[in-house]
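Archive maintenance. Older records in this collection stored only the sequence; we are now back-filling the structure field for every entry so that each record is complete. The fields below show one back-filled record exactly as it appears after the update. Entries are processed alphabetically, and Adenine DNA glycosylase is next in the queue.

ARCHIVE ENTRY
Title: Adenine DNA glycosylase
Organism field: Seonamhaeicola algicola
Length field: 347
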Amino acid sequence: MQFTKTITSWYSVNKRSLPWRDTKNPYNIWLSEIILQQTQVKQGLPYYYAFLKAFPSVFHLAEAQESDVLKLWQGLGYYSRARNLHAAAKYVVNDLNGTFPSNYKDLLKLKGVGDYTASAIASICFNENTAVVDGNVYRVLARYFGVNIPINTTKGVKYFKTLAQTLIDAKNPADYNQAIMEFGAIQCKPQSPNCNICPLNTSCEALAKNMVKTLPVKLKANKVKKRYFNFLVFISEDGKTILEKRTGKGIWQNLYQFPLVETKQDADFDVFSEQLKTETLLKKQSFQLSLYNKDSIVHKLSHQHLYTKFWIVNVNKLPVKGVVFKDVKAYAVPVLIGNFIEAFQFK
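Back-filled structure field:
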């Protein structure tokens, strides 16, 4: 098909030089694909190098402590990716003797690996004829073929996967899959694509019908939830603070944070000060309270916005075992906490 030939030809001339394109090693490809889920190449590249340096093989990653993996992941967000990465590495080492699955079906058994990632690894590493469909591919196909089926519906997912499969170059699925993803990333961009120099502009349905800005179609997500976080940054006279490990299945699982008090609305100083006197850590204990940031820091996650304040709590002695100031930066924390730690500079 001309579409396939044009995309592949464009790729041979315009592809970026990226380290995971110089290897067929499934560990490297898998690592890059997990990092680049919901992360742009520019941001993910330093993490890719850092992970390969710290964990040069799946055996090194499997043997690592989860806390070390999370610490290295810090700043990328969606921390379940890091936990799944670690769990999958253990599975490969312990159940598969360190040998990665070599086909799409078995790759899906790895924790955190879905249709897109399995297709990418299977085609790039093992030349399996299975099409990738990511955000870039959805955009290219929706625009070129003029498809207005919402991409975030069951019908849309099935339709675009089937369409993508009919277009793949069966003789060279690795290059074709990378080509269409790259085409979406740097040519058929989400905003302001340069259609004048696009090699597909004479046959693109969206361009012909003035629909470039409206395709692909995506149904609106649920309303973003607002949450009000108040972190208690304890400062003791002997130079210690308190960090707690988050548990459960919510955000930031297994990462560390300062003791958290969540309120129903933005906390007023006087009201919050009185409320703290009933908190477990501060019951029957004298303390001095000050607000580090007058205006809430808004930390935006996919389905919720965290309106955050950091409260400095000066005490003579911590009510629980603490962390000495010099060790605070060694803990794996969400980027929101990490930014505060960098700015506050515990001394």
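Update note: Strands lie at 225-236, 240-241, 244-245, 256-257, 260-263, 288-291, 297-300, 304-315, 323-324. The mean pLDDT is 95.
Entry marked complete.
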